[in-house]
Write a structure and sequence with these properties.
It is a single chain. The protein is mainly β. The chain has two domains: 139 residues, Immunoglobulin-like (Sandwich), CATH 2.60.40; 90 residues, Immunoglobulin-like, CATH 2.60.40. It contains no helices and 21 strands.
Length: 245
């Protein structure tokens, strides 16, 4: 059973892109989540961390005809014998929608588009990727019939992947300009860098805790990614309506 009372009655093979090719991968879905496909999974320990810092990234695509809202996942990395090595849980970063007459922002993946799962942890002991032989994921969502893209969403322009303006070659950032459609504040931008295989490599964020009035703009630069130039990226914006306190 999932947290919303649904039954995981659909089990399918896992994503075609994973950094753990030795592991068998299955994805269980509730009936509401049947049109969601997990495209990739990337479990990434930080080799330089003294605190065993580890991150996990995954891309999920909505192949259905309606927006998929509050998409969440629990994923468990196990030994071949079934022992738990690491578990992660996340809601998908996705585009901001609304329901009914309220403009209150809610996160939904539009039809044909993707969202991104991200989680991190500081486990007591380092995660040994070579010990992982099974990966089991559970996908759910909360149905919101009639959810549509929020008309209060800001617009983005001149968005590009460029060498980081501060660090230069080998450092990559996403830059652009956000223009407010209506007055908003506490703005967060999450950019996810991808390679040619479709693997999400890292996450770069930018934030503006102040107020951007309707019609005003904010030039943003996400935190950089270090390495070979990513081939593409996914970008999501969240915000609160009105002027900040």
């Amino acid at each position: 059973m999932n947290g919303n009372g649904g039954t995981f009655d659909l089990v399918v093979p896992g994503p075609t892109v994973s950094n753990l090719p030795q592991a068998t991968f299955t994805v269980a879905k509730t009936a509401d989540a049947a049109d969601l496909d997990l495209l990739s999974s990337n479990l990434v320990p930080d080799p330089n961390s003294t605190l065993n810092f580890i991150q996990w990234f995954a891309e999920v695509k909505n192949n259905g005809a309606a927006a998929a809202c509050f998409v969440q996942i629990t994923i468990t990395f196990k030994t071949a014998g079934g022992g738990c090595v690491k578990a992660m849980h996340a809601y998908a970063d996705s585009d901001t929608h609304k329901i009914d007459v309220s403009d209150t922002p809610i996160p939904c993946i539009p039809p044909g588009k993707s969202g991104v799962f991200y989680d991190n942890d500081l486990p007591a002991v380092p995660v040994n990727l070579a010990s992982i032989g099974r990966i089991e994921a559970q996908l759910t969502l909360i149905p919101y019939p009639g959810a549509v893209l929020n008309p209060s969403n800001p617009t983005l322009s001149s968005v590009a992947l460029v060498p980081d303006p501060t660090n230069g070659d080998g450092y990559w950032a996403i830059v652009g300009t956000l223009t407010a459609t209506t007055t908003i504040y506490n703005i967060g931008i999450s950019g996810y860098y991808k390679n040619r295989d479709g693997m999400i490599l890292d996450r770069g964020t930018a934030s503006n805790l102040g107020t951007v009035a309707a019609g005003a703009s904010w030039a943003f630069t996400t935190f950089y990614y270090v390495g070979a130039q990513p081939s593409s990226y996914l970008l999501f914006v969240d915000y609160l309506l009105g002027a900040g306190p």
